[in-house]
Design brief:
This protein is α/β, with parallel strands linked by helices and about 675 residues long. About 55% of the residues lie in helices and about 15% in strands. This is histidine kinase.
């Protein structure tokens, strides 16, 4: 690319030299025309002088004739008075004529003298002007020779050759340097369009000709092209062509002039640079892979450390919950009064619910919780959240909500968002023991994936929750999203609140960020993806579920590989009034059905051993028996997404008696809608 400057300068010099040559040609033509005019004037004066000379000679002849006549008359005088008188009269007349002739001769001589003087001055002026024009013409010729020599030197040392194409006439002229540049013999090659195309390398011929035709079609005054040639002595060379298109008054192209320059060195340098860049790119990629591998090892180490913390926290919390359940079961076995049994059962039920809540938070942190995102009017939703937060916070905490009128809708799970904001509100309450202000702000933002720290790009709704509490020091801020990390006293928190908020935001397609300084409060920001507004059912609050009538007794096939879970589930189903048959695997269920077991519904766990899981069993039954209801249940975090993708109902563990009853009704109704019409 460094040769681009000299190429342009050479084109400019060539154009300037062409202009000088044209001016010299015009000056020479003017001098020639003026010399011709002076020569014509001189010839006219010479003609006039010849005419006056003829007239003078005629007058002189008449005078000689009269003198001869007078002399003859004198010789013939005979003394006769009459004759003498007549001769005297004739002599007087002759004298008068002679006097008149002399006067005319004097006038003619004066005119002739004036003409001679004028001719002399004219000849002198003509000679002077001819000498000046001759000197100017010589100077112009020298300038022309110098310009042509400079052009030849410029072409020789720049490796350039000029060309001139008369488009209507089809005539093409090349300079001597152009022949040398292309390795062509001027004795054997006649400049022509066909000869030019033939000199272009075969692989560039089509593109080069297309560039020229495109220039002519678009009337582009600047013609540029690069192509390769096969030089007869120097091998493959790269040339660049630069030209100027000239059009007539109608806009039709009539002439294309320009030059070609050898850019082989530049091209080779570019290719070398490209090769070096490619090598550097490979090295960078290898270095990046090495760094990614190192980061992966570091991430694995950090993950194992976090897993250790997570396992310890889960073990601690679940040991507490299991202690409540096992101790309560032990006390119930020993017998107790009804009031004590009720308290024990309440404690055991509360422990089970806390375990389910802990599991749900773990799944949300791991981004494996099944979300139900939908378009949400955040502005209206926040107004509803004000009352809920007011009940959850103390009276000495003021709640402020700032929302613009044009706030976008967000695509998010409303229930999970409500839980996240409540968690943030509770954390803010604990950070403001002396009271304060909880400010919730929302705004529209456009993120750039190139500059965003989490590589998020596009439209988002930014929801910020700010408190005026004690804030956090840097060492606490760095670990704020870690699971089971908490600054609260033992028994006052699980350490999963902010971890759940972060997991929910990431699973929703956004992220969570926190900003805090000790003594200046804390701001937690949620970035939620934008959704198109809607006025349909999704925009309205979900109505409470309608009461579901008890389902008629069913013949159920329970597919469960865990004996304890199978025993308790079967007992629960019998309590609801259903008959239950149990098998331990999906192949066993298929075999039982093939052998003629009549059932109204299949209830199966998703994750089972034996090569087939419950989802595969449900899919096979849907294909073979589309009218047979199948209800899937699972406590595995990855199951909801797989089941939802298959379009099947799912009951998530742990579940209550009422949730089980509703799930049976929903599975029956879904199968009824899928059942093909009877012929």
């Amino acid at each position: 690319m460094r040769r681009a400057g000299p190429d342009k300068a050479l084109i400019t010099n060539h154009a300037r030299i062409e202009d000088e040559l044209e001016q010299l040609r015009v000056s020479v033509e003017d001098a020639r025309e003026e010399a011709a005019a002076l020569a014509a004037e001189r010839d006219a004066l010479r003609t006039e002088l010849a005419t006056r000379s003829v007239q003078l000679r005629e007058v002189e002849a008449r005078l000689r004739q009269r003198e001869q006549a007078g002399e003859a008359a004198r010789m013939a005088v005979i003394g006769n008075d009459q004759v003498i008188a007549r001769h005297m009269s004739e002599r007087d007349a002759t004298a008068e004529e002679l006097r008149v002739a002399v006067e005319e001769l004097q006038v003619l001589a004066e005119e002739l003298e004036e003409s001679n003087n004028a001719l002399t001055h004219t000849n002198a002026a003509l000679e002077e002007r001819v000498a000046e024009r001759t000197a100017e013409l010589a100077a112009l010729n020298r300038q022309l020779r110098d310009s042509e020599e400079r052009l030849r030197l410029a072409q020789r040392y720049a490796g350039a050759g000029t060309w001139d194409w008369d488009i209507p006439g089809g005539r093409l002229s090349w300079s001597r340097e152009y022949f040398d540049l292309c390795g062509l013999d001027p004795e054997t090659v006649e400049p022509s369009y066909e000869a030019w195309i033939a000199s272009v390398a075969l692989q560039d011929r089509a593109a080069t000709e297309a560039a020229l035709q495109d220039c002519l079609r678009r009337r582009d005054p600047d013609f540029r092209v690069e192509y390769r040639i096969n030089h007869s002595q120097r091998g493959e060379r790269w040339l660049t062509g630069r030209g100027r298109l000239i059009c007539d008054d109608k806009g039709d192209p009539v002439r294309l002039i320009g030059l070609n320059i050898d850019i082989t060195d530049r091209k080779r340098a570019e290719l070398a640079i490209a090769e070096v860049n490619e090598g550097l790119k490979r090295e960078v990629e290898e270095e990046a892979k090495a760094r990614e591998a190192a980061q992966a090892r570091l991430f694995q180490t950090l993950k194992l450390e976090a897993l250790g913390q997570l396992t310890g926290g889960v073990a601690h919390d679940f040991n507490n919950l299991l202690s409540v359940i096992t101790n309560g079961v032990g006390l119930l076995r020993r017998g107790a009064d009804e009031a004590r049994q009720a308290r024990l059962l309440d404690a055991m039920e509360q422990a089970a619910r806390r375990g389910a809540e802990l599991t749900r938070r773990l799944l949300s942190f791991a981004r494996r919780q099944a979300l139900r995102p939908e378009p949400l009017d955040v502005q209206a939703w926040l107004q509803d959240m004000r009352e809920l937060l007011a009940r959850a916070l103390r009276g000495d905490i003021a709640i402020e909500i700032e929302v613009p009128e044009d706030l976008w809708w967000a695509r998010v799970d409303p229930g999970e968002l409500e839980l996240a904001v409540l968690n943030l509100g509770v954390n803010a309450r604990d950070a403001m023991p002396q009271g304060g202000t909880l400010r919730i702000c929302a705004e529209n933002v456009e993120l750039d994936a190139l500059t965003d720290p989490d590589r998020l790009g596009g439209p988002f709704v930014r929801l910020s929750v700010t408190d005026t509490g004690t804030g956090m020091p840097p060492e606490v801020l760095a670990r704020v999203f870690e699971p089971f990390f908490s600054t609260k006293d033992i028994g006052q928190g699980t350490g999963l609140g902010l971890a759940q908020v972060y997991g929910f935001a990431r699973q929703s397609g956004g992220t969570a960020r926190v900003r805090s300084r000790l003594g200046e409060g804390t701001t937690v920001t949620l970035l939620l993806p934008r959704a198109a507004p809607t006025v349909g059912p999704e925009a309205r609050p979900a109505p409470p579920p309608p009461a579901i009538a008890d389902v008629a007794p069913l013949q159920l096939l329970l597919v469960e590989d865990d004996d304890a879970v199978a025993e308790l589930t079967a007992e629960t189903l019998r309590h609801l009034g259903h008959d239950v048959s149990r098998v331990i695997s999906a192949p066993a269920a298929l075999k039982a059905l093939e052998e003629g077991l009549a059932v109204d519904m299949v209830l199966t766990d998703v994750v089972m051993a034996g090569g087939q899981d419950g989802l595969e069993l449900a899919q096979r039954l849907r294909a073979a028996r589309p009218g047979l209801p199948v209800l899937l249940y699972s406590g595995y975090g990855g199951a909801p997404a797989r089941v939802a993708a298959a379009g099947l109902p799912l009951l998530r563990k742990p579940y209550s008696l009422e949730e089980l009853r509703r799930a049976l009704v929903a599975a029956r109704d879904a199968a009824t809608r899928r059942r093909p019409p009877e012929a």
